[in-house]
Amino acid sequence: MISKKEDLEKLEESKKFHTTTYGTRYFREFVPKYEIPEKGMPPNAAYQIVHDEMNLDGNPSLNLASFVTTWMEPEATKLVMENISKNFIDHFEYPQTEVIQKRVVNMLARLFNAPEETNFAGTATIGSSEAIMLGLLAHKWAWKKRRKSQGKPHNKPNIIFGADAHVCWDKFAKYFDVEPRIVPMETDRFTIGPETVADLIDENTICVGAILGTTFTGEADPIKEINDLLVEIKRSKGWDIPIHVDAASGGFITPFVNPELVWDFRLPQVKSINVSGHKYGLVYPGLGWLIFREYSDLPEDLIFYVNYLGDEMPTYTLNFSRGAAMVIVQYYNLIRLGREGYKNIATNTLKNARYLVKHLTKMGKFDMLNTAKLLPIVTFKLKEPANYTPFDLSHKLRERGWIVPAYTLPPNAESIAIMRVVVKENFSEDMADMLATDILKACEALEGTKKEEIVGRRSPREGHHIT
Fold it and tell me: Which of 25, 235, 335, 457 is the 20 to 30 A CA-CA neighbour of 141?
């Protein structure tokens, strides 16, 4: 009888050549979850344990809650793996990566109609949250410098944005000591406009935030009208108040399918724009971009120069180290797809979103809030009265694997609970049919009813399947 621990370990070692990964001892022993284990395990066992646990996560292809890209071409994935070990900040060690970043900044500035006579600037970021904070910091510093030069107080800056903004706007205000003047929602209004902004503006306003595709409903603020208000204020009062456009969602859609919509650098008060490469830029997370209309809109005081990586280089980020791979595959996408390719994809996503809207409207169970007129985002709420909530419906759909979020709107519209579907590149018309069918079945289950309504297409000779 084997009694010594060493002999047992030797026995286990000999067995590993005569069993599968699941047959080893690592699958019948406790694996510490909150402290580092004393001893390690073979890579195949560690991989399988982690791999199997990840099966409990949602399926990214059915994740209709997130705007983030969940599919890229095999060639792009290959580029990611080839460059995954590169640190983006190491410009001296990886000079071509810096060159590629500059190319993308130039492409995006021109996509957003930066005037030819301006010396625009930009940078890659981890995502739009970092890009927004960096852009707003620049506007705070520019306001502060201007107030100092005029001999005026500069200790009470404020920023105006709507309750429709992403939480990173609130974070900026708190982290960087700026008074947030937030335009609340109403039950019949989910965006901001010149009439709601005008009363909040004063000489201490560092910036007005406008959104091209809100997180909550997918709508867009009337950016041109807000710009016109600020142009008039500049003329009448001398306050040169910039607009930062949060185009995280819309920046890679609108220029391709709705180029006549004026929201970008064609408007004189639009001084900075952010866009998410990892949303409709079609790149895996995390990647954002910040573009300034002019280099002078970025105060030199905010740029740091470091020389301990082999060469002196400028840096304007909230972090330092980050992966270079996503910057590289953003460039891949831009040269691979071109304007025509991005337009085709954006057109498809809008078409499929509107196809889903048609089915949801036909059910007669929902009030549609956003019907994908501008962006491929569908938001809706249950018709009253209903004996279940959007949260019930969201949980029911999860049984089929669909991740469709339900949430309440911000004050003063918190009484409204809605659902949102973000249609992405890999959401086909076929998937829209299946989602609509599952939504109808989930509603029927929650209502305790069974109807003969068929959603989507069906073969006229489709028969019964007997197992």
Answer: 235
Residue 359 DSSP one-character state:
H
Paired residues of 419 in beta bridges: 380, 406
Confidence of residue 365 (pLDDT cuts 50, 70, 90): very high
Q: Is a pLDDT exceeding 90 seen at residue 89?
A: no
Q: Residue 87's CB: how many other CB atoms inside 10 A?
A: 15
Detail the DSSP E strand segments found in 81-213: 121-125, 158-162, 179-183, 205-211
pLDDT tens track for 2-46: 556 666 666 566 556 678 999 999 999 999 999 999 999 999 999
**pLDDT digit string (tens) for 165-188?**
999 999 999 999 999 999 999 999
Edge-first strand order for the sheet with 417-422 is 366-371, 377-382, 417-422, 406-408
Q: How many Cβ atoms sit within 10 Å of the Cβ of residue 29?
A: 9
Is residue 465 predicted with pLDDT exceeding 70? no
243 bridge partner residues: 208, 270
Among the four given CATH numbers 3.40.228.10, 3.30.160.40, 3.40.1110.10, 4.10.280.50, the one describing domain 5-57:
4.10.280.50
* Residue 147 token pair: 């107030």
CB 370 within 8 Å of CB 379: yes
> Domain segments of the chain: what residues?
5-57, 77-334, 346-447
What is residue 163's predicted lDDT score, i.e. its pLDDT?
Answer: 96
**CA–CA separation, 25 and 44 (whole Å):** 13
Residue 298 near residue 140 (C-beta atoms within 8 A): no
Rounded to a whole number of angstroms, the distance between the first and last alpha carbons of the chain is: 51
Q: What angle do CA 143, 147, 152 make, to 5 degrees?
A: 150
Structure tokens at 455: 């959603």
pLDDT band at 350 (very low <50, low <70, confident <90, very high): very high
Residue with tokens 């867009």: 220
77-334 CATH pick, 3.40.50.2300, 3.40.640.10, 3.30.2290.10, 3.90.1580.10? 3.40.640.10
346-447 has the same fold as 5-57: no
Phi and psi dihedrals of 282, rounded to 5? 70, 30
Task: Over range 49-53, report the average pLDDT.
Answer: 95
What CA–CA distance (Å, rounded) separates 251 from 280?
Answer: 8
Nearest to residue 367, comparing CAs of 191, 204, 236, 187? 187
With cut-offs at 50, 70 and 90, classify the pLDDT of residue 314: confident
Q: Give 346-447's CATH code, choosing from 3.90.226.10, 3.30.70.100, 3.90.1150.160, 3.90.190.20.
A: 3.90.1150.160
pLDDT of residue 454: 44
